[in-house]
Specification:
heterodimer; A: 437 residues; mainly beta; Neuraminidase; Rossmann fold; six-stranded mixed beta sheet; four-stranded antiparallel beta sheet; 30 strands; B: 179 residues; alpha+beta; 60s Ribosomal Protein L30, Chain: A; 6 helices; globular
C-alpha cells in the first residue's frame, strides 16, 4: 500500500496535445480466437543510455507480446525511427506497409535532479490518428513501473480491456529442506511478471491456497504453522494476521466474498469436508453443504449471489453451483471425470478450472452460458488456474523442465509465457484485483 | 465403475466401524480433543525409532521398527488394499499392545490435480486408515488424522513412480512422542 501511494505521488501525469479523452477511442476486439494486433514499437529517443533489458520499449514489448493479444513487429523492419509527433504526421503509409495496426513512439531524458522524463504517443495507423499521449516524470527505480503503465495504456486503447501490467500475484514457493518430505514454504507477492517478489510468510510447515480480498488489501490462506491446518487472514501492508478457522480436521480452501465481509471455506469438523461461509466480523459460520462426500474449493460469483465448488458426490470431482445461502445446488461439469478448483472470471461468464483429459491435467475454461469446456494448455500437470483481473489471461502453476513454475495463457490461446519467479517449486498462484477498482 | 467400488468399500468400512462401538463413530477430529489429555503420557514414551509403549510392563511384541509405517493408495483412491491391509494390521497390533502410544495418521497425495481437492483426498486416506484401525480394535483416542494434500511429496519426480510413492498415509509415531 505504501509503495503504491509513493508511486502514485511521484508519477506526474501531464497531458500533451490531444485531450486525455482520446483514450475513449478503442479498436474493439472481434471475438474470435487467434486474433492479434500488429503493433510497431519504435525504440524511444534517449533510451539507448539504459541497458537493453531496462529500456521502456523492451519492457512494453515484453508485456504486450506476453499478453497474447499483440504481435510486436521487429524494429529492424521499420522504415524510420520517429521519436516525435512531427516525424509521424504524413508518414502513416510507412506503417500501413508493415501492416501495423498501432504505432508507439516516445522519448526520454534524465533531468538535472536525477529524475527521468518519459513521453509517448500511440497512433491508430489505419485512421492516421492519435489514440493516446502521456508524459511521466519518475525516479529511476520507477522506470519499470512507468513502462508497465505505458503498456497498460496501449493495451486498453487497443483491446478495450484494462491492462494488468501493474497488478500483483501471490504464490507459494517450496524449497527442499532436510530429509525427503521436508520443505521450507514461502508465501510471496510479486508483480504480474513474477519480479520484485517479497516474502509475506515463511514456514517449515505447508502454506497453501492464497486468495486476495476484493481490493487487494488482504490475503487469506491455509497455514500449518501450528502443526495443524488453519485458515488465516493477513493484511498485506501491515503483515498483521489473524487465525479465523482452526477447527478439528480440515480447514481449507478459503475465498473472500466480493464485498470482503465473508469467507467461503471447507471444514471437516462434522466428519466430512463441507462448504461453510464465515462472517469475518462475528466469526459466525453457516454450513452450506451436507452429506458424506468431499465438498471443497468454493468460489464466489462476482455479484456474490452464487458459489461454485468441487464435490465428488457423483463419484469423481466435478464442479457444482449453488446460491450463496446453499440453495439450488446443481452440477455444472459433465465432460471428463476430473474437474476441480473452479473460480469465476471477473465478468462472471466463465470459470477457469483444472480438467483431466487422457490422464493429463489442464487449465481449462468453462462457459456458463452454454456449458462448454475448453482446454487451454498442452502442459499436463496444471493446477490453481486464476483469472487476471481483466479476464483476458489465466495464471496457473505447471511443470516445465522438471520444476513447478507459474505460467500464463491468454484466452485467445495466442499468448503463453512462463513467469520469471526465482526460487524453488512455485505453486498456488492467485492474481490480485486491480489496485484502483 | 471403479468409483462405485471405492465408495462401497468406504461405506462398508464405516458400517463396520459403526458396529465396533461408540468410539468408532465419533466425528473425525473428536479424538484430537481426547488426545490432548494423552500427551503427557505419550511424552513418557521417549523418542527414537524403537520407542516402546509406556507402563505396559511386558513389551515383548514387535518393535516400531519391525513393520512399515507407510501405506499406499491407487490414483484418486482411499481404498486400502493388498499388502497395505497387512501393514495397517501390524500397526493395529502394535497400537493395541501399547494403548498409551498415540499416532498421527498423515494423509498425502501425488501432485496431480488441485491443492485443496488433494487436501480432501489426503484426509479421506487418513480417515480410511483410522477407520480400519478402529475396526481392528484400536482405541480412537490413540489416533489423530491430518492431511497434507500434495504439499509434502517424498519423491520429487514428476512421473508415475514418484506419484505412487507420494500417495500415502504415514503413521507418524514421533509427532506426539516429541510433543
Amino acid at each position: 500500500m505504501n509503495r503504491l501511494k509513493a508511486r502514485v505521488g511521484v508519477l506526474l501525469w501531464v497531458l500533451l496535445g490531444t485531450p486525455f479523452a482520446a483514450l475513449a477511442v478503442t479498436i474493439h476486439i472481434s471475438h474470435g480466437y487467434g486474433q492479434k494486433f500488429p503493433i510497431a514499437i519504435v525504440p524511444f529517443g534517449g533510451e539507448q543510455a539504459w541497458p537493453p533489458e531496462s529500456r521502456p520499449t523492451t519492457i512494453i514489448g515484453k508485456d504486450l507480446a506476453g499478453s497474447g493479444w499483440f504481435d510486436v513487429l521487429p524494429s529492424r523492419d521499420y522504415l524510420s525511427h520517429p521519436t516525435h509527433d512531427v516525424q509521424v504526421q504524413g508518414h502513416f503509409n510507412d506503417w500501413r506497409l508493415l501492416k501495423a495496426t498501432a504505432l508507439l513512439i516516445g522519448h526520454m531524458q534524465r533531468l538535472p535532479d536525477g529524475r527521468i522524463d518519459l513521453a509517448f504517443r500511440l497512433y491508430d495507423v489505419n485512421k492516421g490518428s492519435q489514440l493516446a499521449a502521456l508524459q511521466y516524470t519518475v525516479r529511476p527505480p520507477q522506470l519499470e513501473a512507468a513502462a508497465n503503465a505505458i503498456a497498460n495504456v496501449v493495451y486498453e486503447a487497443i483491446t478495450g480491456a484494462r491492462g494488468v501490467f501493474n497488478t500483483r500475484i501471490a504464490f507459494v514457493t517450496m524449497y527442499r529442506d532436510g530429509p525427503p518430505g521436508h520443505f521450507l514454504y514461502k508465501l510471496e507477492i510479486a508483480d504480474a511478471e513474477g519480479h520484485d517478489a517479497r516474502v509475506v510468510l515463511q514456514s517449515r510447515e505447508p502454506i497453501m491456497s492464497p486468495r486476495w480480498s476484493p481490493h487487494g488489501g488482504r490475503l487469506t490462506y491455509v497455514s500449518f504453522a501450528t502443526g495443524w491446518p488453519a485458515v488465516y487472514v493477513q493484511d498485506v501492508a501491515t503483515g498483521q494476521m489473524s487465525r479465523v478457522a482452526a477447527f478439528h480436521g480440515l480447514n481449507g480452501a478459503p475465498a473472500f466474498s466480493p464485498d470482503g465481509t465473508h469467507l467461503a471455506l471447507s471444514l471437516s469438523k462434522t466428519g466430512y469436508p463441507e462448504i461453510y461461509t464465515m462472517n469475518l466480523a462475528t466469526r459466525h459460520l453457516r454450513q452450506l453443504t451436507f452429506g458424506p462426500s468431499i465438498n471443497t474449493e468454493p468460489s464466489w460469483s462476482p455479484g456474490g449471489g452464487h458459489i461454485v465448488f468441487t464435490s465428488n458426490r457423483s463419484g469423481g470431482p466435478q464442479i457444482y453451483e449453488m446460491n450463496a445461502d446453499g440453495g439450488d445446488k446443481h452440477r455444472l461439469t459433465f465432460r471428463g471425470r476430473y474437474n476441480a478448483g473452479a473460480s469465476f472470471s471477473p465478468n462472471g461468464k466463465w470459470l477457469t478450472l483444472v480438467s483431466r483429459r487422457a490422464g493429463q491435467y489442464h487449465a481449462a475454461v468453462f462457459e456458463l452460458a452454454d456449458s462448454t469446456l475448453e482446454i487451454l494448455t498442452d502442459t499436463s500437470l496444471d493446477e490453481s488456474p486464476t483469472f487476471a483481473p481483466n479476464g483476458q489471461e489465466i495464471l496457473y502453476s505447471t511443470v516445465v523442465g522438471g520444476h513447478r513454475v507459474l505460467a500464463t495463457v491468454s484466452l485467445n490461446g495466442q499468448g503463453h509465457r512462463i513467469l520469471g519467479v526465482r526460487g524453488g517449486d512455485v505453486t498456488d498462484p492467485a492474481w490480485s484485483p486491480f489496485r484502483h477498482p | 465403475m471403479k468409483m462405485n467400488k471405492r465408495t462401497l468399500v468406504i461405506v462398508g468400512l464405516a458400517a463396520l466401524a459403526g458396529c465396533a462401538g461408540k468410539e468408532a463413530v465419533k466425528p473425525h477430529g473428536a479424538s484430537a480433543t481426547a488426545s490432548r489429555g494423552m500427551n503427557t503420557q505419550a511424552n513418557g514414551a521417549g523418542q527414537g525409532s524403537n520407542m516402546q509403549g509406556t507402563g505396559m510392563g511386558s513389551s515383548t511384541g514387535p518393535t516400531l521398527s519391525s513393520f512399515s509405517h507407510l501405506v499406499h493408495f491407487r490414483t484418486n483412491s482411499a481404498t486400502i488394499s493388498g499388502v497395505n491391509r497387512k501393514i495397517v494390521k501390524e500397526n493395529a497390533s502394535y497400537l493395541e499392545a501399547h494403548p498409551n502410544v498415540r499416532v498421527r495418521l498423515e494423509g498425502n497425495t501425488d501432485e496431480r490435480g488441485t491443492a485443496q481437492y488433494n487436501m480432501a483426498l489426503g484426509w479421506r486416506r487418513a480417515d480410511a486408515v483410522k477407520h480400519m484401525l478402529e475396526v481392528l480394535g484400536v482405541s480412537g483416542s490413540q489416533l489423530a488424522t491430518i492431511s497434507f494434500g500434495k504439499s509434502r511429496p517424498l519423491a520429487m519426480g514428476h512421473n508415475p513412480q514418484a506419484w505412487a510413492k507420494n500417495r500415502r498415509v504415514y503413521f507418524n509415531y514421533k509427532y506426539f512422542a516429541s510433543k
